[in-house]
Structures are given as structure tokens and as C-alpha cells.
């Protein structure tokens, strides 16, 4: 039986959540459903414990990630946003190309200080997206805009991951 991720952690469905409270409730629940607690149980109990633990982990990962939480909130309202989708947004597509070129230049120059600045710009862009999404996600008349914001979040997540990998390579 599937339950709302927010209800699992006794949170109201909202984009802005208390991440410390989420983590604390996750730890408490994880201890309760951990499969090791059911090691001497029946096969059925063991299987159920594994399923509960997996569902708990999935719910936690979804809610702690802003882009995944945003996608989940929209899905609760009947608007599914595919994980990978082409952004039909010429302005943002141009911005994506510019950011990728900038990152490639930083990599070619092995510019660690530039990477740190680039990372800070991504953080600010992400905060702006998060704030905008938080303000509009419940407005049914703006669901297409909310979906567009989620796609932008997903792009920034991917780019941020690439930046972290580049930092690791340049630090070595």
C-alpha cells in the first residue's frame, strides 16, 4: 500500500519543508522498519520489512531533493513531469548552451577558482527557481509554468553534478 510521502513523515504537502525535521523523522522511521529488526521473522515479514524500508528511502530521497519534491508535488496534482525532457523554452535553451560552454572553458583552463564562482552562480539560479516554484506550484492556472521550472531545476541538478565532478578532477 502506497501512502503520500509527506504523510509518511507527518508533513504537510508543500515545497518549502523543514529538512532537519524530515531527516529526524526519517532516522526514527528507518530504525523502526530496518530489515535487520525482522531477521528472525517469517519470509513474509522479512519481505515486508524490505519493502517498507525501500519505500521509506524512496520517499526520503524524493522529499529532500527540491527538484524531485517539486515533481512529486505536481504529480499529486495530476501533472506528471518526465525526468528527462527537452525544454521547449528557447530562452532557457540558449542559457543552457552558454552555461555548458562556460563550464567547458573552465575545464579546459583547469580554473578551480572559476569553477567555484560558476558553482555560486548555479546556487543563486537554483534559489531563484525554488522561490518562484514555491510561489506558484499550487496555482492551477500556472501549472505549465511550474512544470517548466521543474525542467529547469532538473537541468541545474545535472549541471551541478558535472561541476562537482570537475572540481574533484581539478582537486586531484
Automatic annotation (TrEMBL):
The keyword Protease does not apply. PROSITE patterns: DNAJ_2. Gene3D superfamilies: DnaJ domain, HscB, C-terminal domain. Residues 4-76 form the J domain. SMART domains: DnaJ (SM00271). InterPro entries: DnaJ_domain, HscB, HscB_C_sf, HscB_oligo_C, J_dom_sf. Keywords: Chaperone. It holds the Pfam family HSCB_C. SUPFAM superfamilies: Chaperone J-domain, HSC20 (HSCB), C-terminal oligomerisation domain. Belongs to the HscB family. Interacts with HscA and stimulates its ATPase activity. Co-chaperone involved in the maturation of iron-sulfur cluster-containing proteins. Seems to help targeting proteins to be folded toward HscA. NCBIfam families: hscB, PRK00294.1. HAMAP family: HscB. This is Co-chaperone protein HscB homolog. It comes from Stutzerimonas tarimensis. The gene is hscB.
Amino acid at each position: 500500500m502506497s501512502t503520500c510521502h509527506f504523510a509518511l513523515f507527518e508533513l504537510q504537502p508543500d515545497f518549502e519543508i523543514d529538512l532537519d525535521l524530515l531527516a529526524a523523522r526519517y532516522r526514527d522511521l528507518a530504525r523502526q522498519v530496518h530489515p535487520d529488526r525482522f531477521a528472525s521473522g517469517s519470509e513474509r515479514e522479512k519481505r515486508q520489512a524490505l519493502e517498507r524500508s525501500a519505500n521509506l528511502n524512496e520517499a526520503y530521497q524524493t522529499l529532500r531533493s527540491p527538484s524531485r519534491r517539486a515533481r512529486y508535488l505536481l504529480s499529486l496534482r495530476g501533472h506528471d513531469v518526465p525526468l528527462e525532457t527537452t525544454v521547449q523554452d528557447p530562452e532557457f535553451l540558449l542559457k543552457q548552451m552558454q552555461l555548458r560552454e562556460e563550464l567547458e572553458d573552465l575545464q579546459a583552463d583547469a580554473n578551480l577558482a572559476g569553477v567555484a564562482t560558476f558553482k555560486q552562480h548555479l546556487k543563486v539560479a537554483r534559489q531563484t527557481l525554488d522561490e518562484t516554484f514555491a510561489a506558484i506550484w499550487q496555482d492551477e492556472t500556472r501549472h505549465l509554468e511550474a512544470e517548466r521550472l521543474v525542467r529547469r531545476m532538473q537541468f541545474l541538478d545535472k549541471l551541478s553534478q558535472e561541476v562537482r565532478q570537475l572540481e574533484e578532477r581539478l582537486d586531484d
